[in-house]
Amino acid sequence: MGALPAVLGIIVLTIVFSAARPSFLTPLNFANLLTQAGPIVVLGMGLVFVLLLGEIDLSAGFASGVCAAVLAIMLTTNGYPWYVGVAAAIATGVVIGLLLGFLVAKVGIPSFVVTLAGFLAFQGTVLWLLKEGTNISVRDEVIISLENEYMPPMVGWALGGLTVLGFAATQLIQQRNRRRRGLPAMLWQVVAFRVIGLAVLVGVAVSVLNEERSRNALFSLKGVPIVVPVIGVLLLLWTFVLRRTAFGRHIYAVGGNREAARRAGIAVDRIRISAFVICSAMAAVSGILAASMARSVDPNTGGSNVLLYGVAAAVIGGTSLFGGKGRVLDAVLGGLVITMIINGMGLVGWSSAYKYVATGVVLLLAASVDAFSRRRSAASS
Fold it and tell me: Which of 243, 273, 337, 357 is 20 to 30 A removed from 9 (C-alpha atoms)?
């Protein structure tokens, strides 16, 4: 069923919360949804790579906290420019991923055990870096702008147009290549419907976000949040890697059948280590966005429900917990579902208890759909 449950979930949640609180569909709350979803979506993108192998990374949340702490220390305590802090944070994520991947692939310790140990160790590392509870403020304007600033309206329209044109070009090239190879291709009406559908979706979103959202006449608040193109670039990058490169095909092959992949000559251990490296590097980016949104880093950064929301985003979007099936886009759709539950229930005034129950039920439903689809595929093969 792929991403269909997540899309239906977005539609149902929009209808329910809009009926309960009309403010849910305002431009101000729409922009808030996108910015709140940023760290969850990016963390989920990285977890997709590990889940595709049938593995799990329980340390991704606190790994993002460690990387955020490194960023804050580099910027605030040591006074380095933003690009040095970002590079140090991502490099920290890469080292963490190398360590986890080595222990899983080379030493042979189950990923559940390795990353559970990492969960505890990185929690302690955050406390050590922050000197047992210090809150470090992030004042760098570039970092803060990621989650708190917006693009000029014309830039938003230009990026939206480029997105639609790029999607249309990709669709046409795919159709042409499939026909050249004698493979079945989609009807042109279907291609046109998909391109027009994306154009309408992007047009409505940009139009809504370009409306004036400020309630204060002294300053303006309009435009697409800067975090949106950041997520868009990451989505394009990792989608290309998974769908258009040999590395991506090897990820699916190892996740589908590790032994068969090994017999086919694929360097299975290297693929597994690489997946953990990508997951932890994306956790670092998630930590940077979280630090930007909070304008600070504290011992709770990357803790609490961050990991659970990241895993839930990937699974609810359609990534299989059994490996071999999933897309980076799944994390975007699942992350939106999670954020809509959190945001909508907050507007309705429901307590955190209901948020946890609702999120758990949605995750269980998504996992059930995944298990059901897997059983059907096994029965029909």
Answer: 243
